[in-house]
Structure formats: structure tokens, C-alpha cells
Design brief:
The complex is a heterodimer of chains A (460) and B (111).
Chain A: H1 8-13, H2 27-45, E1 50-51, E2 54-55, E3 57-60, E4 65-68, E5 71-73, H3 78-99, H4 102-107, H5 109-125, H6 128-136, H7 141-167, H8 172-180, H9 186-206, H10 208-214, H11 216-220, E6 231-234, H12 236-239, H13 264-267, H14 288-300, E7 307-310, H15 312-315, H16 325-347, E8 351-357, E9 364-366, E10 370-381, E11 387-394, E12 400-402, E13 408-410, E14 414-425, E15 432-441, E16 448-456
Antiparallel strand pairs in A: 1-2, 3-4, 4-5, 6-7, 8-10, 9-10, 10-14, 11-13, 11-15, 12-14, 15-16
Chain B: H1 16-42, H2 61-89
The chains are: A alpha+beta (460), B mainly alpha (111).
Chain lengths: 460, 111
């Protein structure tokens, strides 16, 4: 038993030892750097992009409207968000079935921000050995300066992150102005600090501990894995028995496999596991061990890929299946949902109507044998242009509609409430009847919506 | 594990209290986020209690959202806490596998 499997109970109460992952270069690490730049670039730049008069992407919570480029979503469109979440979840299943924890290694915010914080740390404190030396060094002015610089840079970056986050919910140019003049609103200030603080703690201190103790995905990933899922794996058949050897000696003669037991794969691991023990739930699929091992294999003159992306079937020398029931079902479900989403969002009705009965009186009896009911008709115009609307009502013979004017003007992305009076000759009417209100645009852009309400008459 | 360099001792664990805090705070945070979205997708906070009497519950929407979020977080955290407590205090061994040491009289298995 080695120390990694040391008494669990004792370890539970011990403070965690900080992991100093060793810096490593290689093709997968390059890919991860690109991913960090692409995703963080998107995150920090997006709120600054303009779309006509307004911010292109703005989740305007105070106004209860979400703007995403040309699209404006209202609370009534809430189900689109649910739909999006379902697509995202399915996509996660799909990619996990295909290639394991791609999300963790390349796209998870936790990974991406941690990566940035590690870069800052390396830039200020130097390499892994220098960092560990600094940590052991006695307190001195130089140490304080280095540590202080690191924490200051982390803090600045975290605050900028929090500021950007709030910039998705309040117009960011205004927010920037308020920050400069120290006049941000109480909630804006609070959320900047909250999100900035969370970034600072998560990416600066908790790091991969979040993946190990807090992430549910790490625990249920295996439900999506099968024999054909690409995972990061050590080729045991080729590597074992591992062991150090002399340069130029024949490993086969010494009864050794290809693993030279240099433990570089362990040193680069951000979660501190040994990949040679097989797939473990702590593995976030960052592929650092692949790059590290490839480098070592190249140095000792063995073929690369002792640690590599491979499938269980591939390791056993069987055929690989990218297309299999699991991926086909996930894939077609996602395609179907995305197509449906795109169709619905482009064909959704841009006007809506909400009819509420006047609460003060059920009905009024007018001279001439007329019964009157009053309604509040709310017209919602989600279109990017203003429209004039007519209101009609059906459901009773001889129905008269009166709302003061002929055309109700409703601005772009606006709501207008109109008092509508319906009058019907008393005649044979008994009890209540259903009335269908229709609002219709009075210009070349034909849009309409209907809303139901009850028409009440005296019972005697 | 490499012992020569001395940095990997295998004790790469959070203390129990840290784990517990994370296990309670994080899932409830996720649940509270979703609950807040769903709740305020349907309810406009400035319209809550906005009849003639009593006065509206929230002066601004942002206050309503924030109060709602922290309320949901608190409720979900209480649930997480109780779940964690039950999991942590459960006896992992089924009655018939318990030994004599430290086992209550009533649960001892018949030999």
C-alpha cells in the first residue's frame, strides 16, 4: 500500500495539501489554452458588443426582458429556456458517451478559471519548484511582495469577472460609468462582489477540490460511459511491469514494460491521481498526463501513446464503434430538439393578448336594454417595430365593442393596457357566455392573437 | 507515489468540515438558481402583495429576485444539511455483520 491509499479516516481530518501541478507543454495542453482563450474571450467581450441602440446580449432582469442579438424574449417565452437546458443536458450526455469528460477538461468554467489563476500564479511565483520553495521559505519582504502581487492580480481579475457577470444583467457601459464614479446600486455592488468573490475562492483556492467533492457530474459520468467511450487511459499491457532502466538497455531482456516509472504523469496531474491505476472519478480529463508521458516516451525513444485517449475496446484490441445505439439516440434527439427549437423561436407569435375582467362590477344595465361588461385588455408587442392594433370580439349576437379609439398604438417591445366595453342587447341572454377577443395589427405586417373571457348578464 | 520530492503524501483531502460545507452549500446553490429562474419566470416580484393592502412585498424587482434567491438557497441548504446528517450518522454495517465491540445490546446478532 502506498501513501495515496493511506488510512482514510486519519486523512479525513487532515488539512489538504496543496497540489502544485507541474507545468507541461504538448498538443492537448495547447488545445486547452485555445479553449480558455475562446471561452473567456467570449465571456468578457460579449457584453460590450452593441446591437443597434442596445447591448447585444442583455438579460434585462429589471425590465423582465432578455435580449439576445435580434431576439427579445419575454417571461411568456420562458419555456425556451427550459428547452435550451434540456438540449444542453443532452449534449453533455452525448459528448460524454463519445469522449468522456471533454466538458471538464476543456470547457467547464471551474477548469477554465482555475487555469487562468494558475497562469497568474506561475507568472508571479515561477515554476512548480520555485512555488514550493517560496511556500517553504521564511517570511520576508520578497516573499510578501510576491505573494501580495499574486493575490492582488487574482483579486483584480476576480472583480473584473464579477463586474462582467453583472454586465450581462445591467447595461455594461452604464455599469462601468457607475463603477468609475463609485455610484453602483446596492444590488449591483453586492452581485459584483458575490460573483467576484466566488471566482476568487473557487479558482484561487478550491480548484480541483470542487471537482472532487462538489461536482455531481464526476459521480454519474460512469452511467454514460461504455466500452466505446474515449477515455484517458494507461496502456497497462504495454507499460507493465514498470521500472527504471539503464539508457540503451533492452527492456524486454530485463523483463520490463515501457513504463519507466518516472512519475511525471503523477506530478502533472492537477487532482493528484495516478492514471496508471485506471479510470478514477477524480480524473477531469485534462490530458496533462498524455502530454507529459509522450514527452518522456520521445526522450527515451519509445513510441508515444503509453498514456492516450482510447476506448476500453481499443485497449483490448477490438474494433471501435463511434456509431452505436447510444450515440445515435442521443445525437438524433439533440438534432430533433435543436430543429424544433429553431423553428419555434422563429415562428413564435410576436403579439399576445391578456384579457382581465373589470373587478369592480360584474355587469351594468344600460338604457335601451343593453348589458355592458368592462375588460382590461393588455396588448403585448414583442416585435422589433411598433404596431397599431384593432380589437374585435366574437361570441354573442349583436356584440358592440368600444375602446375609445379605432387603433391602439403599441411601441416596439411594449405593453399597452386598454379598457374595452362590450355591450349586448339583453334579449334572450341567460347566464354567462364565452367571448373571444382578437387583436390584429392594422399595417402590412399581419399579426394577431386571441384571448378568452366571460361575458356576464343578470340572472333574473 | 513519489516520496523523494515529498510533496505528494496522498492527503489530498479536505478536512471533514470543509467537505460538509461544500456538500451542503453547493447543491443547494444549484437548486436555488434553478428555483429562482422558474419562480420569477412566472411571478413578477413587484406584483407580489401588490393589492391595495398590504403594500407590495418588494420595492424593486432586483430586491425581489435577490431575496427570492437567498430564500431558496436557505431552504435547499436546510434540506441538504438534513440529508447529510442522516447519511453521516447512519450505521454502514447491516445488523448481522456487526461485531460485539461497541454494539448496542438490542442489535447484536444471534450466534
Amino acid at each position: 500500500m502506498n501513501e495515496a491509499e493511506a488510512p482514510v479516516d486519519g486523512a479525513l481530518y487532515a488539512a489538504r495539501q496543496k497540489i502544485y501541478p507541474r507545468d507541461i507543454k504538448g498538443r492537448f495542453q495547447r488545445l486547452r489554452v485555445y479553449a480558455v482563450f475562446a471561452l473567456l474571450g467570449l465571456y468578457y467581450v460579449l457584453p460590450w458588443i452593441r446591437w443597434g441602440e442596445r447591448q447585444a446580449v442583455l438579460f434585462d432582469l429589471p425590465a423582465r426582458k432578455f435580449h439576445i442579438f435580434g431576439l427579445t424574449l419575454w417571461p411568456q417565452d420562458f419555456y425556451f429556456l427550459t428547452w435550451l437546458l434540456i438540449i444542453a443536458a443532452l449534449a453533455l450526455f452525448f459528448f460524454t458517451a463519445l469522449a468522456g469528460r471533454l466538458f471538464c477538461g476543456y470547457a467547464c468554467p471551474q477548469t477554465v478559471w482555475t487555469e487562468t489563476f494558475v497562469w497568474i500564479e506561475r507568472w508571479v511565483e515561477g515554476s512548480r519548484t520555485q512555488q514550493m520553495k517560496l511556500a517553504r521559505a521564511p517570511l520576508s519582504g520578497a516573499k510578501l511582495l510576491r505573494k501580495g502581487t499574486k493575490y492582488f492580480l487574482w483579486l483584480a481579475f476576480a472583480l473584473w469577472t464579477g463586474f462582467t457577470f453583472v454586465g450581462y444583467f445591467t447595461p455594461i457601459t452604464e455599469l462601468a460609468g457607475n463603477v468609475v464614479t463609485f455610484s453602483t446600486g446596492p444590488w449591483e455592488t453586492f452581485w459584483v462582489l458575490f460573483y467576484g468573490g466566488a471566482t476568487y475562492v473557487n479558482a484561487g483556492f478550491m480548484r480541483e477540490q470542487v471537482c472532487k467533492y462538489m461536482c455531481p457530474y464526476a459521480r454519474f459520468q460512469s452511467a454514460m460511459f461504455d466500452q466505446d467511450t474515449l477515455i484517458i487511459t494507461y496502456d497497462e499491457k504495454r507499460g507493465e511491469p514498470r521500472g527504471a532502466r539503464k539508457k540503451g538497455s533492452d527492456p524486454k531482456a530485463a523483463g520490463l514494460g515501457d513504463c519507466v516509472d518516472c512519475t511525471v504523469c503523477v506530478q502533472v496531474c492537477p487532482t493528484g491521481i495516478d492514471i496508471r491505476k485506471g479510470l478514477q472519478y477524480e480524473c477531469i480529463a485534462c490530458a496533462a498526463c498524455i502530454d507529459a508521458c509522450d514527452e518522456v516516451m520521445a526522450k527515451v525513444g519509445y513510441p508515444k501513446g503509453l498514456i492516450r485517449y482510447d476506448t476500453q475496446s481499443g485497449l483490448e484490441g477490438k474494433a471501435k464503434h463511434v456509431l452505436r445505439p447510444r450515440t445515435i439516440i442521443y445525437g438524433s434527439l439533440i438534432a430533433l430538439l435543436i430543429a424544433g427549437f429553431a423553428y419555434t423561436i422563429t415562428h413564435r407569435n410576436l403579439v399576445a393578448v391578456d384579457v382581465i375582467r373589470d373587478r369592480n362590477a360584474l355587469f351594468r344595465e344600460l338604457p335601451g336594454g343593453l348589458i355592458e361588461n368592462v375588460y382590461s385588455v393588455k396588448i403585448l408587442n414583442k416585435d422589433a417595430a411598433g404596431h397599431g392594433f384593432s380589437i374585435t370580439a366574437d361570441g354573442l349576437p349583436g356584440l358592440q365593442v368600444d375602446y375609445g379609439t379605432d387603433v391602439v398604438e403599441v411601441g416596439a417591445g411594449d405593453v399597452q393596457s386598454v379598457a374595452v366595453r362590450l355591450r349586448v342587447p339583453r334579449g334572450e341572454l341567460k347566464g354567462g357566455s364565452d367571448i373571444l377577443f382578437t387583436i390584429r395589427t392594422q399595417d402590412e405586417r399581419a399579426l394577431e392573437a386571441t384571448g378568452k373571457a366571460r361575458f356576464l348578464v343578470p340572472t333574473n | 507515489m513519489r516520496k523523494a520530492s515529498g510533496e505528494y503524501t496522498g492527503r489530498l483531502r479536505w478536512p471533514r468540515l470543509g467537505q460538509d460545507l461544500a456538500i451542503v452549500a453547493w447543491p443547494s446553490f444549484l437548486v436555488a438558481s434553478v428555483a429562482t429562474m422558474v419562480c420569477f419566470g412566472f411571478i413578477d416580484p413587484v406584483l407580489v402583495g401588490n393589492d391595495d393592502y398590504p403594500p407590495p412585498a418588494f420595492q424593486t424587482r432586483m430586491t425581489g429576485y435577490a431575496v427570492g434567491f437567498f430564500f431558496f438557497w436557505l431552504i435547499a441548504a436546510l434540506s441538504s444539511l438534513m440529508t447529510l446528517y442522516l447519511v453521516r450518522t447512519a450505521n454502514p454495517e447491516p445488523p448481522d455483520e456487526r461485531t460485539d465491540e461497541g454494539t448496542a445490546e438490542g442489535t447484536r446478532s444471534p450466534e
